[in-house]
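EI: anyone free to look at a 126-residue chain?
SC: sure, send it
EI:
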Amino acid sequence: QLQLVESGGGLVQPGGSLRLSCAASGFTLDSYAIGWFRQAPGKEREGVSCISSSGGVIYVADSVKGRFTISRNHAKNTVYLQMNSPKPEDTAVYYCAAVSVPDTIVVVTSHEYDYWGQGTQVTVSS
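SC: here you go
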């Protein structure tokens, strides 16, 4: 069974840091583009950052540019989202998703993804 599992969420103070992980089981992420998305209460799901299968192409939403960094570790079959200097408006459930596409492509729209994790709550508050 193909699964994605997010971890690392929790309560963080504004200006702190948090690292989310997205681990795969049942398949290898090597040939998959990965995206991090988030959804706050009453809002639509939005793309945060996406990375191509090799890691060579990255998309970062303007709202988190310069603060969040996406990366992947093929040996650990895991993708990360490093969240630095989070703000209260970053509070949301964060999801990772996977889609099999050619290496140089990042996928920004959520409906194109095939596999989703269950989400992890991130709350930014003092």
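EI: The two ends are 39 Å apart (CA to CA).
SC: 👍
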